[in-house]
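Section handout 9: paired folding examples.
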Amino acid sequence: MTGILLKFRVSILALVLGSALLVSPLATNAEAVGLFGYRATPYDGLKPFPKWRQVLKTYKEEPGDCQSGKYNRCAHQKWLALIEDWRELPKQEQLNRVNQHMNLFRYILDPVNWGVRDYWEIPKEFFARFGDCEDYAIVKYFTLRALGWSAEDMKIVVLQDMNLGIAHAILVVEFDGKNLVLDNQIGQVVDAKRIKHYRPIYSVNEIGWWRHKEP
Protein backbone atom coordinates (compact mmCIF):
# COMPACT_ATOMS: atom_id res chain seq x y z
CA MET A 1 0.00 0.00 0.00
CA THR A 2 1.12 3.58 -0.59
CA GLY A 3 0.12 7.14 0.21
CA ILE A 4 -2.09 6.98 -2.87
CA LEU A 5 -4.32 4.42 -1.19
CA LEU A 6 -4.32 6.44 2.01
CA LYS A 7 -5.72 9.37 0.05
CA PHE A 8 -8.26 6.95 -1.42
CA ARG A 9 -9.30 5.91 2.08
CA VAL A 10 -9.81 9.51 3.13
CA SER A 11 -11.86 10.36 0.05
CA ILE A 12 -14.00 7.22 0.35
CA LEU A 13 -14.58 7.85 4.05
CA ALA A 14 -15.73 11.38 3.32
CA LEU A 15 -18.06 10.06 0.63
CA VAL A 16 -19.55 7.41 2.87
CA LEU A 17 -20.04 9.67 5.87
CA GLY A 18 -21.59 12.37 3.74
CA SER A 19 -23.86 9.91 1.97
CA ALA A 20 -24.95 8.40 5.27
CA LEU A 21 -26.99 11.53 5.89
CA LEU A 22 -28.99 10.77 2.76
CA VAL A 23 -29.51 7.03 3.27
CA SER A 24 -32.03 5.56 5.65
CA PRO A 25 -30.51 3.04 8.07
CA LEU A 26 -31.80 -0.50 8.17
CA ALA A 27 -32.13 -0.27 11.92
CA THR A 28 -32.78 2.63 14.27
CA ASN A 29 -30.01 1.77 16.70
CA ALA A 30 -26.44 0.81 15.93
CA GLU A 31 -25.94 -2.93 15.65
CA ALA A 32 -23.01 -4.00 17.82
CA VAL A 33 -21.45 -6.74 15.72
CA GLY A 34 -18.10 -6.36 17.43
CA LEU A 35 -15.87 -6.61 14.33
CA PHE A 36 -12.41 -5.67 15.59
CA GLY A 37 -14.18 -4.18 18.62
CA TYR A 38 -16.16 -1.60 16.62
CA ARG A 39 -19.90 -1.09 16.29
CA ALA A 40 -21.53 -1.42 12.88
CA THR A 41 -24.54 0.64 11.82
CA PRO A 42 -26.33 -1.00 8.86
CA TYR A 43 -27.71 1.00 5.92
CA ASP A 44 -29.96 -0.01 3.07
CA GLY A 45 -28.95 0.39 -0.56
CA LEU A 46 -25.57 0.80 -2.25
CA LYS A 47 -25.86 4.30 -3.70
CA PRO A 48 -22.62 5.58 -2.07
CA PHE A 49 -20.57 2.82 -3.77
CA PRO A 50 -20.65 3.10 -7.58
CA LYS A 51 -17.55 0.93 -8.05
CA TRP A 52 -19.10 -1.92 -6.05
CA ARG A 53 -22.41 -1.52 -7.88
CA GLN A 54 -20.55 -1.78 -11.18
CA VAL A 55 -18.84 -4.96 -9.98
CA LEU A 56 -22.20 -6.49 -9.06
CA LYS A 57 -23.58 -5.54 -12.47
CA THR A 58 -20.72 -6.98 -14.55
CA TYR A 59 -18.99 -9.75 -12.56
CA LYS A 60 -20.64 -12.54 -14.60
CA GLU A 61 -19.35 -11.25 -17.93
CA GLU A 62 -17.52 -13.88 -19.95
CA PRO A 63 -13.80 -13.39 -20.69
CA GLY A 64 -12.11 -13.61 -24.08
CA ASP A 65 -10.39 -16.67 -25.53
CA CYS A 66 -7.12 -18.20 -24.38
CA GLN A 67 -4.92 -16.76 -27.11
CA SER A 68 -6.11 -13.22 -27.62
CA GLY A 69 -8.48 -10.59 -26.37
CA LYS A 70 -8.44 -8.45 -23.27
CA TYR A 71 -9.19 -11.24 -20.81
CA ASN A 72 -7.92 -14.79 -20.46
CA ARG A 73 -10.58 -17.46 -20.77
CA CYS A 74 -8.12 -20.17 -19.68
CA ALA A 75 -7.60 -18.63 -16.24
CA HIS A 76 -11.34 -18.04 -15.91
CA GLN A 77 -12.11 -21.64 -16.82
CA LYS A 78 -9.52 -22.86 -14.33
CA TRP A 79 -11.30 -20.80 -11.66
CA LEU A 80 -14.63 -22.43 -12.52
CA ALA A 81 -12.99 -25.87 -12.39
CA LEU A 82 -11.53 -25.12 -8.96
CA ILE A 83 -14.97 -24.12 -7.73
CA GLU A 84 -16.29 -27.52 -8.77
CA ASP A 85 -13.33 -29.27 -7.13
CA TRP A 86 -13.97 -27.41 -3.87
CA ARG A 87 -17.76 -27.70 -3.87
CA GLU A 88 -17.96 -30.86 -1.73
CA LEU A 89 -15.28 -29.85 0.77
CA PRO A 90 -16.21 -28.99 4.37
CA LYS A 91 -17.02 -25.31 4.82
CA GLN A 92 -13.88 -24.48 6.79
CA GLU A 93 -11.72 -26.15 4.17
CA GLN A 94 -13.44 -24.16 1.44
CA LEU A 95 -12.46 -20.97 3.23
CA ASN A 96 -8.88 -22.15 3.57
CA ARG A 97 -8.58 -23.17 -0.08
CA VAL A 98 -10.11 -19.97 -1.41
CA ASN A 99 -7.91 -17.76 0.74
CA GLN A 100 -4.69 -19.65 0.00
CA HIS A 101 -5.27 -19.94 -3.74
CA MET A 102 -6.22 -16.31 -4.37
CA ASN A 103 -3.31 -15.08 -2.27
CA LEU A 104 -0.95 -16.73 -4.76
CA PHE A 105 -1.75 -14.07 -7.37
CA ARG A 106 0.53 -11.08 -7.73
CA TYR A 107 -0.25 -7.82 -5.96
CA ILE A 108 -0.29 -4.73 -8.16
CA LEU A 109 -1.49 -1.20 -7.42
CA ASP A 110 -4.35 0.34 -9.41
CA PRO A 111 -2.33 3.33 -10.74
CA VAL A 112 0.16 0.87 -12.24
CA ASN A 113 -2.42 -1.67 -13.35
CA TRP A 114 -5.23 0.58 -14.58
CA GLY A 115 -3.81 4.10 -14.68
CA VAL A 116 -6.38 5.36 -12.15
CA ARG A 117 -6.24 5.94 -8.41
CA ASP A 118 -8.83 3.30 -7.53
CA TYR A 119 -10.43 0.51 -9.54
CA TRP A 120 -12.54 -2.41 -8.30
CA GLU A 121 -12.06 -5.51 -10.46
CA ILE A 122 -14.40 -8.32 -11.35
CA PRO A 123 -12.94 -11.87 -11.24
CA LYS A 124 -12.04 -12.10 -14.95
CA GLU A 125 -10.03 -8.89 -14.63
CA PHE A 126 -8.25 -10.18 -11.53
CA PHE A 127 -7.20 -13.37 -13.30
CA ALA A 128 -6.02 -11.44 -16.36
CA ARG A 129 -4.20 -8.57 -14.64
CA PHE A 130 -3.94 -9.43 -10.92
CA GLY A 131 -4.95 -6.70 -8.46
CA ASP A 132 -4.71 -4.99 -5.09
CA CYS A 133 -6.33 -5.62 -1.71
CA GLU A 134 -10.01 -5.04 -2.52
CA ASP A 135 -9.64 -7.14 -5.68
CA TYR A 136 -8.47 -10.14 -3.63
CA ALA A 137 -11.48 -9.62 -1.34
CA ILE A 138 -13.85 -9.38 -4.31
CA VAL A 139 -12.66 -12.55 -6.04
CA LYS A 140 -12.82 -14.46 -2.74
CA TYR A 141 -16.35 -13.13 -2.17
CA PHE A 142 -17.61 -14.34 -5.56
CA THR A 143 -15.79 -17.65 -5.31
CA LEU A 144 -17.56 -18.37 -2.04
CA ARG A 145 -20.87 -17.20 -3.50
CA ALA A 146 -20.37 -19.70 -6.33
CA LEU A 147 -19.73 -22.37 -3.70
CA GLY A 148 -23.11 -21.63 -2.14
CA TRP A 149 -22.20 -19.25 0.66
CA SER A 150 -24.82 -16.65 1.53
CA ALA A 151 -24.26 -12.96 0.86
CA GLU A 152 -25.66 -12.27 4.34
CA ASP A 153 -22.66 -14.04 5.87
CA MET A 154 -19.99 -12.07 4.03
CA LYS A 155 -18.73 -8.50 3.95
CA ILE A 156 -15.95 -6.76 2.09
CA VAL A 157 -14.44 -4.53 4.77
CA VAL A 158 -12.45 -1.38 4.01
CA LEU A 159 -10.28 -0.48 6.97
CA GLN A 160 -7.17 1.24 8.25
CA ASP A 161 -4.12 -0.85 9.05
CA MET A 162 -2.94 0.96 12.16
CA ASN A 163 0.48 -0.72 12.16
CA LEU A 164 1.34 0.30 8.60
CA GLY A 165 -0.73 3.49 8.50
CA ILE A 166 -2.40 2.53 5.22
CA ALA A 167 -5.82 1.73 3.85
CA HIS A 168 -6.62 -1.94 3.31
CA ALA A 169 -9.54 -4.21 2.37
CA ILE A 170 -10.38 -7.76 3.41
CA LEU A 171 -13.21 -10.27 3.26
CA VAL A 172 -14.93 -11.18 6.53
CA VAL A 173 -17.09 -14.31 6.67
CA GLU A 174 -19.42 -15.15 9.54
CA PHE A 175 -19.10 -18.86 10.21
CA ASP A 176 -19.56 -21.07 13.25
CA GLY A 177 -20.21 -18.07 15.47
CA LYS A 178 -17.02 -16.26 14.43
CA ASN A 179 -15.99 -13.44 12.12
CA LEU A 180 -13.31 -15.09 9.99
CA VAL A 181 -10.86 -12.93 8.05
CA LEU A 182 -9.66 -13.76 4.52
CA ASP A 183 -6.78 -11.35 3.96
CA ASN A 184 -4.18 -11.14 1.21
CA GLN A 185 -1.66 -10.08 3.88
CA ILE A 186 -2.29 -13.16 6.04
CA GLY A 187 -1.61 -16.68 4.84
CA GLN A 188 -4.28 -18.38 6.95
CA VAL A 189 -7.94 -17.73 7.68
CA VAL A 190 -8.03 -16.21 11.16
CA ASP A 191 -10.61 -15.15 13.72
CA ALA A 192 -11.05 -11.36 13.67
CA LYS A 193 -10.58 -11.36 17.45
CA ARG A 194 -6.92 -12.25 16.92
CA ILE A 195 -6.28 -9.07 14.91
CA LYS A 196 -5.72 -5.95 16.99
CA HIS A 197 -4.35 -3.44 14.45
CA TYR A 198 -7.31 -3.07 12.06
CA ARG A 199 -9.79 -0.18 12.34
CA PRO A 200 -12.81 -0.87 10.10
CA ILE A 201 -14.34 2.09 8.27
CA TYR A 202 -17.13 0.60 6.19
CA SER A 203 -18.18 -2.75 4.76
CA VAL A 204 -20.41 -3.84 1.86
CA ASN A 205 -22.09 -6.89 0.39
CA GLU A 206 -24.88 -7.37 -2.14
CA ILE A 207 -27.56 -6.36 0.34
CA GLY A 208 -26.33 -3.13 1.89
CA TRP A 209 -23.49 -1.49 3.76
CA TRP A 210 -22.30 -0.83 7.28
CA ARG A 211 -20.48 2.10 8.84
CA HIS A 212 -18.08 1.10 11.62
CA LYS A 213 -17.13 3.26 14.56
CA GLU A 214 -15.82 2.90 18.09
CA PRO A 215 -18.36 1.90 20.75
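Moving on to protein 2 of 2.
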Amino acid sequence: MLGRKLLPFVEYICFTMKWVVLIWGLCMWFSCLAQDNYEIQVYGSDIVEPHHTMVELHSNYTLEGSTQEENGVLPTEHAFHETVEITHGFNEWFETGVYFFNSLGSDGRTAYVGSHLRPRVAVPERLHWPVGVSLSMEFGFQKRSFSEDTWTLEIRPIVDKTLGTWYFSLNPSFEKSLKGLNAGQGFEFSPNLKIDDAILKWAAVGIEYYGAMGPPGDFPPVDEQQHQLFLAFDFFFSPEWELNAGYGWGLTPSTDRDIVKLILGRRF
Protein backbone atom coordinates (compact mmCIF):
# COMPACT_ATOMS: atom_id res chain seq x y z
CA MET A 1 0.00 0.00 0.00
CA LEU A 2 2.81 2.40 0.92
CA GLY A 3 4.59 1.55 -2.34
CA ARG A 4 1.49 2.44 -4.34
CA LYS A 5 1.19 5.80 -2.57
CA LEU A 6 4.85 6.59 -3.21
CA LEU A 7 4.78 5.55 -6.88
CA PRO A 8 3.34 8.86 -8.26
CA PHE A 9 5.90 10.81 -6.23
CA VAL A 10 8.78 8.64 -7.51
CA GLU A 11 7.54 9.04 -11.11
CA TYR A 12 7.40 12.82 -10.62
CA ILE A 13 10.98 12.91 -9.29
CA CYS A 14 12.24 10.75 -12.18
CA PHE A 15 10.46 12.89 -14.76
CA THR A 16 11.78 16.12 -13.21
CA MET A 17 15.33 14.76 -13.17
CA LYS A 18 15.04 13.90 -16.86
CA TRP A 19 14.16 17.52 -17.63
CA VAL A 20 16.96 18.85 -15.44
CA VAL A 21 19.47 16.60 -17.20
CA LEU A 22 18.07 17.55 -20.61
CA ILE A 23 18.27 21.29 -19.95
CA TRP A 24 21.74 21.00 -18.45
CA GLY A 25 22.84 18.88 -21.39
CA LEU A 26 21.55 21.39 -23.90
CA CYS A 27 23.30 24.25 -22.19
CA MET A 28 26.60 22.33 -22.00
CA TRP A 29 26.46 20.70 -25.44
CA PHE A 30 25.37 23.66 -27.55
CA SER A 31 27.62 26.68 -27.93
CA CYS A 32 24.93 30.17 -27.42
CA LEU A 33 18.84 32.78 -33.75
CA ALA A 34 16.52 35.14 -33.09
CA GLN A 35 13.34 33.89 -31.60
CA ASP A 36 11.92 33.75 -35.14
CA ASN A 37 10.82 30.15 -35.80
CA TYR A 38 11.91 29.07 -32.33
CA GLU A 39 8.73 29.47 -30.35
CA ILE A 40 5.89 29.37 -32.89
CA GLN A 41 2.82 29.77 -30.72
CA VAL A 42 -0.24 31.98 -30.38
CA TYR A 43 -0.73 32.61 -26.66
CA GLY A 44 -3.94 32.05 -24.78
CA SER A 45 -4.84 34.42 -21.95
CA ASP A 46 -4.72 31.76 -19.22
CA ILE A 47 -1.61 31.45 -17.09
CA VAL A 48 -0.04 28.59 -15.15
CA GLU A 49 -1.86 27.84 -11.91
CA PRO A 50 -0.32 29.19 -8.67
CA HIS A 51 2.55 27.06 -7.35
CA HIS A 52 2.61 24.97 -10.54
CA THR A 53 5.27 24.75 -13.23
CA MET A 54 4.90 24.10 -16.95
CA VAL A 55 7.80 22.62 -18.93
CA GLU A 56 7.52 22.79 -22.73
CA LEU A 57 9.60 21.72 -25.69
CA HIS A 58 9.06 23.77 -28.87
CA SER A 59 10.42 21.86 -31.87
CA ASN A 60 10.33 22.86 -35.51
CA TYR A 61 12.12 22.11 -38.76
CA THR A 62 12.43 24.45 -41.75
CA LEU A 63 11.92 22.43 -44.93
CA GLU A 64 12.33 25.44 -47.20
CA GLY A 65 13.77 28.74 -46.00
CA SER A 66 16.66 31.09 -46.61
CA THR A 67 19.67 29.42 -48.25
CA GLN A 68 22.28 32.18 -47.97
CA GLU A 69 23.66 34.32 -45.18
CA GLU A 70 21.89 37.68 -45.06
CA ASN A 71 23.10 40.68 -43.02
CA GLY A 72 25.37 38.36 -41.06
CA VAL A 73 22.53 35.96 -40.19
CA LEU A 74 22.94 32.25 -41.01
CA PRO A 75 20.43 30.60 -43.41
CA THR A 76 17.42 28.76 -42.01
CA GLU A 77 16.75 26.05 -44.59
CA HIS A 78 17.08 22.51 -43.19
CA ALA A 79 17.68 23.84 -39.68
CA PHE A 80 16.11 22.15 -36.67
CA HIS A 81 15.11 24.53 -33.85
CA GLU A 82 14.56 23.42 -30.27
CA THR A 83 13.36 25.70 -27.47
CA VAL A 84 13.03 24.73 -23.82
CA GLU A 85 10.43 26.83 -21.99
CA ILE A 86 9.88 26.70 -18.21
CA THR A 87 7.00 28.73 -16.74
CA HIS A 88 6.01 29.04 -13.08
CA GLY A 89 2.72 30.41 -11.75
CA PHE A 90 3.09 32.59 -8.65
CA ASN A 91 -0.55 33.56 -8.05
CA GLU A 92 -3.85 33.88 -9.92
CA TRP A 93 -2.65 36.86 -11.97
CA PHE A 94 1.13 36.47 -12.43
CA GLU A 95 3.53 33.98 -13.99
CA THR A 96 7.09 34.08 -15.32
CA GLY A 97 8.65 32.00 -18.08
CA VAL A 98 12.22 31.51 -19.28
CA TYR A 99 13.31 30.29 -22.73
CA PHE A 100 16.47 28.56 -23.97
CA PHE A 101 16.76 28.81 -27.79
CA ASN A 102 18.81 26.19 -29.63
CA SER A 103 19.62 25.30 -33.23
CA LEU A 104 20.80 22.14 -34.98
CA GLY A 105 22.17 22.35 -38.50
CA SER A 106 25.17 22.11 -40.76
CA ASP A 107 27.74 24.84 -41.48
CA GLY A 108 28.02 26.22 -37.98
CA ARG A 109 24.30 26.29 -37.25
CA THR A 110 24.46 23.96 -34.23
CA ALA A 111 24.39 26.33 -31.28
CA TYR A 112 22.78 27.49 -28.08
CA VAL A 113 21.29 30.69 -29.48
CA GLY A 114 20.18 32.68 -26.45
CA SER A 115 17.63 33.08 -23.67
CA HIS A 116 14.56 35.23 -22.93
CA LEU A 117 12.66 36.06 -19.75
CA ARG A 118 8.88 36.51 -19.96
CA PRO A 119 6.84 37.86 -17.02
CA ARG A 120 3.07 37.95 -17.64
CA VAL A 121 0.03 39.35 -15.84
CA ALA A 122 -3.58 38.27 -16.43
CA VAL A 123 -7.10 39.25 -15.42
CA PRO A 124 -8.22 36.55 -12.92
CA GLU A 125 -11.06 34.28 -14.08
CA ARG A 126 -13.03 35.06 -10.89
CA LEU A 127 -13.72 38.57 -12.24
CA HIS A 128 -15.73 37.00 -15.09
CA TRP A 129 -14.66 39.35 -17.86
CA PRO A 130 -16.42 38.64 -21.20
CA VAL A 131 -13.05 37.84 -22.79
CA GLY A 132 -9.77 36.51 -21.44
CA VAL A 133 -7.06 39.19 -21.15
CA SER A 134 -3.39 39.07 -20.26
CA LEU A 135 -0.19 40.98 -21.03
CA SER A 136 3.21 39.44 -21.67
CA MET A 137 6.57 41.28 -21.74
CA GLU A 138 9.51 39.30 -23.09
CA PHE A 139 13.13 40.39 -23.32
CA GLY A 140 16.49 38.75 -23.79
CA PHE A 141 19.46 38.10 -26.05
CA GLN A 142 20.43 35.98 -29.02
CA LYS A 143 23.69 35.46 -30.91
CA ARG A 144 24.47 37.88 -33.72
CA SER A 145 25.03 35.05 -36.23
CA PHE A 146 21.37 34.03 -35.76
CA SER A 147 19.75 37.45 -35.50
CA GLU A 148 20.26 40.98 -36.75
CA ASP A 149 19.53 42.15 -33.19
CA THR A 150 21.28 40.75 -30.13
CA TRP A 151 18.92 42.20 -27.50
CA THR A 152 15.16 42.55 -28.06
CA LEU A 153 11.95 43.43 -26.24
CA GLU A 154 8.43 42.20 -27.01
CA ILE A 155 5.15 43.53 -25.60
CA ARG A 156 2.31 41.09 -26.28
CA PRO A 157 -1.32 41.87 -25.34
CA ILE A 158 -3.47 38.73 -25.42
CA VAL A 159 -7.25 38.56 -25.88
CA ASP A 160 -9.13 35.29 -26.33
CA LYS A 161 -12.64 33.87 -26.24
CA THR A 162 -14.34 30.47 -26.39
CA LEU A 163 -17.74 30.25 -28.09
CA GLY A 164 -19.14 26.74 -28.00
CA THR A 165 -16.58 24.52 -29.71
CA TRP A 166 -14.82 27.52 -31.29
CA TYR A 167 -11.78 29.26 -29.83
CA PHE A 168 -10.35 32.64 -30.87
CA SER A 169 -7.12 34.28 -29.72
CA LEU A 170 -5.51 37.55 -30.85
CA ASN A 171 -1.95 38.62 -29.96
CA PRO A 172 -1.27 42.12 -31.41
CA SER A 173 2.42 42.08 -30.45
CA PHE A 174 4.99 44.87 -30.68
CA GLU A 175 8.72 44.11 -30.90
CA LYS A 176 11.70 46.42 -30.38
CA SER A 177 15.41 45.98 -31.02
CA LEU A 178 17.40 47.15 -28.00
CA LYS A 179 20.83 46.39 -29.49
CA GLY A 180 21.75 45.47 -33.03
CA LEU A 181 21.17 46.38 -36.65
CA ASN A 182 17.63 47.72 -36.06
CA ALA A 183 18.18 49.37 -32.69
CA GLY A 184 17.53 52.82 -34.14
CA GLN A 185 14.04 51.89 -35.30
CA GLY A 186 10.81 51.97 -33.32
CA PHE A 187 8.50 49.13 -32.40
CA GLU A 188 7.51 46.63 -35.09
CA PHE A 189 3.93 45.39 -35.29
CA SER A 190 3.80 41.57 -35.24
CA PRO A 191 0.19 40.34 -34.97
CA ASN A 192 -0.63 36.68 -34.26
CA LEU A 193 -4.06 35.06 -34.56
CA LYS A 194 -5.53 31.64 -33.79
CA ILE A 195 -8.94 30.21 -34.67
CA ASP A 196 -9.81 26.59 -34.03
CA ASP A 197 -12.76 24.25 -33.59
CA ALA A 198 -12.88 21.38 -31.08
CA ILE A 199 -14.04 18.73 -33.51
CA LEU A 200 -13.65 16.06 -30.81
CA LYS A 201 -13.50 16.10 -27.02
CA TRP A 202 -9.78 15.38 -27.25
CA ALA A 203 -8.77 17.33 -30.38
CA ALA A 204 -9.17 20.68 -32.15
CA VAL A 205 -8.13 21.79 -35.62
CA GLY A 206 -7.62 25.35 -36.77
CA ILE A 207 -5.53 28.08 -38.35
CA GLU A 208 -2.68 30.07 -36.81
CA TYR A 209 -1.36 33.27 -38.39
CA TYR A 210 2.01 34.93 -37.66
CA GLY A 211 3.04 38.31 -39.07
CA ALA A 212 5.89 40.82 -38.92
CA MET A 213 4.64 43.94 -40.67
CA GLY A 214 7.13 46.61 -39.65
CA PRO A 215 6.82 49.93 -37.80
CA PRO A 216 3.18 51.15 -37.50
CA GLY A 217 2.52 53.97 -39.94
CA ASP A 218 5.60 53.11 -41.99
CA PHE A 219 5.02 49.55 -43.20
CA PRO A 220 7.41 48.38 -45.93
CA PRO A 221 6.06 46.80 -49.15
CA VAL A 222 4.17 43.55 -48.56
CA ASP A 223 6.94 41.51 -50.23
CA GLU A 224 9.32 42.69 -47.51
CA GLN A 225 6.93 41.82 -44.68
CA GLN A 226 6.62 38.37 -43.10
CA HIS A 227 3.30 36.54 -43.18
CA GLN A 228 2.93 32.89 -42.25
CA LEU A 229 -0.08 30.57 -42.02
CA PHE A 230 -0.22 27.27 -40.11
CA LEU A 231 -2.69 24.42 -40.18
CA ALA A 232 -2.57 23.45 -36.50
CA PHE A 233 -3.87 20.64 -34.30
CA ASP A 234 -4.32 20.69 -30.52
CA PHE A 235 -4.79 17.50 -28.50
CA PHE A 236 -6.35 17.29 -25.02
CA PHE A 237 -5.43 13.83 -23.77
CA SER A 238 -4.89 14.99 -20.18
CA PRO A 239 -5.15 18.24 -18.15
CA GLU A 240 -1.47 17.85 -17.26
CA TRP A 241 -0.28 17.58 -20.87
CA GLU A 242 -0.21 20.00 -23.82
CA LEU A 243 0.32 18.92 -27.44
CA ASN A 244 0.22 21.20 -30.49
CA ALA A 245 1.38 20.29 -34.00
CA GLY A 246 1.24 22.17 -37.28
CA TYR A 247 2.46 22.74 -40.80
CA GLY A 248 3.19 26.29 -41.95
CA TRP A 249 3.46 28.12 -45.26
CA GLY A 250 5.23 31.41 -45.86
CA LEU A 251 3.05 33.82 -47.84
CA THR A 252 5.75 36.33 -48.87
CA PRO A 253 9.31 36.06 -50.27
CA SER A 254 10.71 37.31 -46.95
CA THR A 255 9.14 34.42 -45.00
CA ASP A 256 10.42 30.85 -44.63
CA ARG A 257 8.28 28.82 -47.02
CA ASP A 258 7.65 25.46 -45.30
CA ILE A 259 7.92 24.64 -41.58
CA VAL A 260 6.70 21.78 -39.41
CA LYS A 261 6.33 22.32 -35.66
CA LEU A 262 5.53 20.41 -32.48
CA ILE A 263 4.94 21.73 -28.94
CA LEU A 264 4.90 19.26 -26.06
CA GLY A 265 4.22 20.49 -22.53
CA ARG A 266 3.76 19.00 -19.05
CA ARG A 267 2.32 20.69 -15.93
CA PHE A 268 3.67 19.89 -12.46
